[in-house]
Specification:
The chain is 47% helix and 11% strand. It is α/β, with parallel strands linked by helices and 288 residues long. Strands 1, 2, 3, 4, 5 and 6 form a 6-stranded mixed β-sheet that branches. It starts with a helix and ends with a helix. InterPro entries: HTH-like_dom, Integrase_cat-core, RNaseH-like_sf, RNaseH_sf, Transpos_IS3, Transposase_IS3/IS150/IS904. This is Transposase InsO family protein. Pfam families: HTH_21, rve, rve_2. It comes from Oceanobacillus polygoni. Involved in the transposition of the insertion sequence.
Length: 288
Amino acid sequence: MAFELKEEGFRLKDILCVVGIPEATYHYHVKNFGREDSDIELTERITCLFEKFHERYGYKRITKELQKLGHQINHKKVYRIMRELGLKCVKFMRKSRKYNSYKGKVGKVAKNRLSRRFNTPIPLQKLVTDITEFKCHGEEKLYLNPILDLYNGEIIAFEIQKRPMLDLVMKPLKETIEIIKNRATYRTTIHSDQGWHYQHNQWVRTLKENKVFQSMSRKATCADNASMENFFGILKQEMYYGEELVSYEELKRRIKEYISWYNQERAKEKLGGLSPVDYRTQSTQSAA
């Protein structure tokens, strides 16, 4: 524009004086020409990502997702845009209700084989499990028992029931045993608390028959099973707290949907920004 003005015999300074635009303002807009459109596109992309991840991602996670898509952007700019748009991950931070299945020593208490060593580079080497309780609409309650692989944080099996009966833990255990038979390359250890389910003869016998080591937390020591407690905290903060109570069947559906999303889509920073399933799949392909 400045070049064309000079060809006509006019000085840029004179033109800007006539139209009443400061020269600094003119140069600013020339320098930032096209950026406005880029910012609009970025704003739309951030909004789409926020909705895609069910409003569970804050600005740091959204930044990582944008970087995966090729955007060269830092978290400060994403934070500013999300703040201007009113996009905030608002989840109620409450203490998770812990279901306590301890009834004293009703069977054999195993030693703590993990001793809080939660990391492992080997799939299916270290598994953890526990039971948590949800309140539903009315007087109903829901009990969830997942089994989590410490290798990648994946929930490999789970069961949901209205009452904390023995089947609540035996069904996912049997599913896990089949997975171990097909995929494990190292002897597996399953860690739990000292709840009566895990002291039960049927649980202990199933582990022994399939050559799976049993490990237990010390009594009243939640930190011994911190990885499982962490999963329960994330699940409840992202899809349960702050929501209206729903029926047992509806909550069961939502939990199943969430676990599928958690395994297949939810990015974990310690997995290099991959979901648990993507991490396992990529590692398997690399090994092959």
